[in-house]
Write a structure and sequence with these properties.
mainly alpha, ABC transporter permease, about 260 residues, cell membrane, MetI-like fold, globular, 11 helices, single chain
C-alpha cells in the first residue's frame, strides 16, 4: 500500500495520461477543429515555441513581479490591520464597514478604476493584488487572536508580562497557523487579481496574452497562458504549504 505522501505524487501522475487520452478521444469523436481545441502534442509544441522563441518569459516575469510585490505588501498591510482590529473594538467598528464594502465589490469592476488612477503599468495590478491579499490575512489574524482563551492573557497579566512578551509568546504562536492559512488563500487570489488587472488594461503579462489570444482567435496562445497560470498558482500554493509545514513543525510534533 502506498503512503499518503506517495499517493499525493502517484495519483496526479496517473491522471495526466488519462486526461491526455480523454482529450484526444473527445477531439476524434466530435471532430473538433484545431482552432477550437488543438491536439495535446500540438499545444505543447506551440507552448514550447512561445517560451523559447517568443516573449512568453517576459510576460511571465511581469505577472510574477506583480504577484510577489503585491503579496508582500498585502500580507504586511493585512497583518498590521488585523492586529489593530483584533485589539480594538472601536477601530473595528470604524474601518470594517469600509473594508467589507471594498471586498464585496467585484474586483473586475474595480480594475478599470485602478487603471485610471495608476495607469497601465505594474502599479495598477499591484494595487489590485494588495487589495485581494490583505483581506484574508487580516480576517484570519483577527479570528485567531480573538479565539485565544482569556485565561492565557490572565496568566500573562499575573506574570506581569509586557505587551511585547504577550505578542511574542502568546498572540503570534496562537495565530500563526491561521495567518499561514490566510496567506495560502491570498496567494491563489493574488494570481486572479493580477490577471484581472492585466485583462482589463495592460501592456504585458499573462492576462494580457489571454486577451490578445482571444482577440486574435489564437487558441494555442490562450491555452498556453491558462496552463502556465495554473502551474504558477499550483507552485505558489505548494510552496506556501511547504513553508506552513516547516513553521508549524512544533505543532505536528505535539510541542
Amino acid at each position: 500500500m502506498l503512503s499518503r505522501e506517495q499517493r499525493k505524487i502517484v495519483l496526479p501522475i496517473i491522471m495526466f495520461p488519462i486526461i491526455i487520452l480523454l482529450w484526444k478521444l473527445y477531439i476524434a469523436l466530435f471532430n473538433i477543429p484545431p482552432y477550437l481545441l488543438p491536439q495535446p502534442e500540438e499545444l505543447m509544441k506551440s507552448m514550447a515555441d512561445f517560451l523559447v522563441n517568443g516573449d512568453m518569459i517576459s510576460h511571465i516575469n511581469t505577472t510574477l513581479k506583480e504577484v510577489f510585490i503585491g503579496v508582500a505588501v498585502g500580507i504586511l498591510i493585512g497583518l498590521v490591520l488585523g492586529y489593530i482590529v483584533a485589539k480594538s473594538k472601536f477601530i473595528e467598528r470604524f474601518i470594517m464597514p469600509f473594508v467589507l464594502i471594498i471586498q464585496t465589490a467585484p474586483k473586475i469592476s474595480l480594475a478599470p478604476l485602478f487603471i485610471l488612477w495608476f495607469g497601465l503599468g505594474l502599479q495598477s495590478k499591484i494595487a489590485i493584488v494588495i487589495l485581494v491579499v490583505s483581506f484574508p490575512v487580516m480576517i484570519n489574524e483577527v479570528v485567531a487572536i480573538r479565539s485565544i482563551d482569556a485565561n492565557v492573557f490572565n496568566l500573562m497579566k499575573i506574570l506581569d508580562a509586557s505587551a511585547w512578551q504577550k505578542f511574542i509568546y502568546i498572540e503570534l504562536p496562537y495565530s500563526l497557523q491561521a495567518i499561514l492559512s490566510g496567506i495560502k488563500i491570498a496567494l491563489t487570489q493574488a494570481m486572479v487579481g493580477a490577471v484581472i488587472g492585466e485583462m482589463i488594461g495592460a501592456k504585458s503579462g499573462l492576462g494580457y496574452l489571454l486577451t490578445l489570444g482571444n482577440e486574435t482567435y489564437d487558441i494555442n496562445l490562450v491555452l498556453s497562458s491558462i496552463i502556465i497560470l495554473s502551474l504558477i498558482g499550483l507552485i505558489l500554493y505548494l510552496v506556501a504549504g511547504f513553508v506552513e509545514k516547516k513553521l508549524l513543525i512544533w505543532k505536528e510534533e505535539g510541542v
